[in-house]
């Protein structure tokens, strides 16, 4: 296994894990999710849909990792997650809620890293 393949494996698994975890928190209506989404204008009714997008992205990443023929699906999933978190960053900036910008920034960074590694491998 090359260093690029190892990086792809580790970064993708990290991206999958954090997206499954935050999707579960979204679906559970976790207090920290509600506290972070309300000030930026995300209605509580959006949380199940956002969770579904995160879970779909995680599933696509896993499928792309498991089967080389599905690598384009993994790249598409990483791109979708990148757009999702770019939107989240935009919501934070538009609302000028910067104190918790690191959270969507972290998820955005994992999605970008997964995308770059998937496309380059």
Keywords:
121 residues; mainly alpha; 5 helices
Describe this structure in words.
The protein has one domain. 80% of the residues lie in helices and 0% in strands. It contains five helices and no strands. It has helices at residues 3-28, 31-37, 47-66, 71-95, 102-120. The longest helix has 26 residues, at 3-28. The chain is elongated. The N and C termini lie close together (12 Å).
Could you spell the SSE succession in H and E letters? HHHHH
Largest sheet report: none
Q: N- to C-terminal separation?
A: 12 Å
Helix content: over 70%
Mass-distribution shape: elongated
Give average pLDDT, whole number: 96
Number of strands: 0
Strand content: under 5%
What's this entry about, in short?
By secondary structure, the protein is mainly alpha-helical.
List the helices and strands and how they pair.
Layout: H1 3-28, H2 31-37, H3 47-66, H4 71-95, H5 102-120
